[in-house]
Amino acid sequence: MKANWIFIAGMMLVASCSDSESKTPATPDSGEDNPIEEVVAEPFRANRLLIKHGLQLQCWVATDNYELGGAAGQPAYNMLPSDWALTGFTGPTFFGPPLINPSYFESFPESQWAIAKAPHGDQLDVEPTDYEQRNGYLSDEQKAHIDKLTTVCFGDEEAYSYELVGKLKAWYDLSRRLYPDVLVHNNQYIGQWTESNMRTYIREAKPDLITYDWYYFHTSDPATYIGARDMAEDLQIYRNLALEGWNGDKSDYLAFGQYILGFANEGTYRPTESQLRLYYYLTWTLGGKWINWFRYLQGDGYGGKTAPTQWALLLENGMPGQPTHYMDWVNLCNTESKYIGDYLVRLKTTDVRYVAGSDKYTEGKPGNIGDFSPSASYIKTISAEIPDEPGQGTDLYLGFFGIIPEEEQGDPGFFREGEDKFFMITNGWASMTVQTAEDLSQKIRFAIDMEEAGAASCAWINPHTGQREVLNPVEQTDGLTYYEVELWGGSGALFMLNAES
Q: Do 310 and 412 lie in a common domain?
């Protein structure tokens, strides 16, 4: 679950507007002779907008308004533009009043951005007023950057009720009508809402995106390792709900994603690189298209400017101008994700499989993900091996994808002719003690029945270069073509088959 700390972006700039002023448009519409138009939710809207905006790599950032930050019980702090530029995120998610940083856009005028805890910087407990129905919830400052606004999360972690579903629907309908290029959603922590609650919410409110947060790595029980199995199981819950769609009959589908542990959990445990990488690569392998780093800095209390804190990961003790190795790790993950982002937003998940490692290293199968089976796809064998331990390997996760067709607001013309089968492999090995992911590398060996696949070659997006490279087979026998690649711990890669060599 999220804590309610906040921080401030900018160079000590203090916004002068009040909370009420921030919601007042320049030319209000009285609405006396202007009935509110009903907007029908647009199927596959998330496909269209993610293709437009790209894969979402977001990060929670506070506002640069000390008065409002303090009034909302959220501490503020300085954020240097030079520090933020090191992160590689596609945009900040502003979550405290007034839900935008004017100073941020002075340094990054072309940046995307998002909002959490909309519309008023707190949990959701009201429906739109008649004034908001007609004039919207964005301020003039926000509307000045609306072309780069990608997602809006209304509230955050509210307790479920049918009344809340109605409030969310009202805000989603308003947002779609007035801000048609912005994806709308709510967020829960794992287990907060039952799957039945989620289905009712999805059917009635019709979100574009479903997201959750759960911070897997901690020290409360050192004897219990929390790793890829737990994360994959939770992602699969949201994946299944997303694929069921608004009506529950799979006639449409939603986008989904998760938050990333971006702080020292319980104030003491600092995740390793492989653990952080699992957030990225398991999300992509299971078909997610949104992640959000929580968060840029951690505060030490409530109300006003925060002091530096060791809970921060990206900056040493939270001090501006002192980036850590976590900043390097995040930037690399974001860079690698951008390499495959243009593909991922144009693909839809079709299947996910678990590949068991050796008895010494396996975490065990997630309860809701099927085992790898040679009969399930054109991949007939797959295994991992630790380079200095012959015969030993850890769990793998295998995700399959199809191209989103035009009728689902896809962009099939993006792909090469004859290139229509895609899959991802993630190395599920993550360690609590080994700090770097490269030290958990494994050799991944897999065999494809090229005739069954209707393919002549296999390529991948090299995670280290971003280049599309045709792989050279290491063996061809019994009608199968074998390939080998190396993947760091917690890391994955995107592969594609082509009908031509």
A: no
